[in-house]
Amino acid sequence: MASVVFVSGSLEVLVGAERFSLSASGGFFLDDRDGFLDYLRGRIRDTGFDDIRRGLLRSILGNFLRDVYWMYGKTPDGKFVEKLGFESFRAWLYERASVGRVFVPQSFGDVDDRIVLAWKYILDRADRVGPKIVEEQRMLAEAKFDLI
Question: What is the pTM of this model?
């Protein structure tokens, strides 16, 4: 959800995407889905993009570094991420924001400035966050889950 909202530059992208919003938020599991969607619409009206920009960037940072770790099995530090390059990140972010051809980033107009901002955010924080991602994944792998 963070990628879609960040790339579009607006929360409004979620207003007409009820199934996506329910799926991405866990709202499908609620008894009052319509009430949840009304709540979501109200929050969207009351929340500006600038109010949530940092949270979106943090989510994109964690998601990107996790995916890099899963793909390469190496700590996604700044040097490694920089080696992957901006174009790899751009392709990843476009893919994340293109959900079933519903949200196609090119339909949002000029997104380059936001993508560059996200790339710089990741490069500035990868050395600090990358090792935390590896530790998180190690702990998850060792955890015993009682699902039943």
Answer: 0.78
Dihedral, CA of residue 139, residue 141, residue 143 and residue 144, to nearest 10: 180
Three-state SS string over the chain comes to CHHHHHHHCCHHHHCCCHHHHHHHHCHHHCCCHHHHHHHHHHHHHHCCHHHHHHHHHHHHHHHHHHHHHHHHCCCCCHHHHHHHCHHHHHHHHHHHHCCCCCCCHHHHCCCHHHHHHHHHHHHHHHHHHHHHHHHHHHHHHHCCCCCC
Q: Which residue carries 């380059």 as its tokens?
A: 112
Tell me if 83 sits within 8 A of 89, measured CB to CB.
no
- What gap in Å lies between CA 128 and CA 23, rounded to an integer? 31
Average pLDDT, the chain: 86
